[in-house]
Amino acid sequence: MHTDRTSTTRFPVPVDAALRAAGWQPGRWDIKQAEIWADTLREHTSPAGHTHAVFPAAVEAWAEFGGLHITPTGPGRQVAPAAVHFDPLHGLHMARTLGDLGRALDTEVCPLGTETDTQSLLAIDTEGRVYALDHTGDWYLGPDIDQALAGLVAGIEPVRLTAG
Length: 164
Fold this sequence. Notes:
It comes from Streptomyces muensis. The chain is α+β, with helices and mostly antiparallel strands. It has helices at residues 13-22, 31-43, 56-65, 95-105, 145-154, and strands at residues 69-70, 84-85, 109-115, 120-125, 130-134, 137-142, 159-160. The longest helix has 13 residues, at 31-43. The termini are far apart.
């Protein structure tokens, strides 16, 4: 299934095109901004005392993709492709929700950004797995940021997480 990839990119061509149109390029690395987000999340405590977990997989994703507004073009394969804004502060007030998901999955979960059309919160766990949380449930988007992006941009239907 590598027919739609070029030798110069790690993403399928439509995903690479959407990322580049958003300002991403191979080697993009804004660790300064990622550290600002990390500090902001670490310093936030909800009124009920919930705090954010911050870990390397999240910081690395922010450093590479943080701040990007990704707008896919073309129809999705199974569902509408998702426009994404990579900014973890979209999840600033979701510490309890993310903590609950982390406990359910036996890991820690940190915000990545949002699907701008649906307001689904995108999140990443300590292993780099990516999830979406919205009013309809919690969704597994892929084992890493690359596959999650490919699914979001291509409009591949995510897998619903089942309780327990």
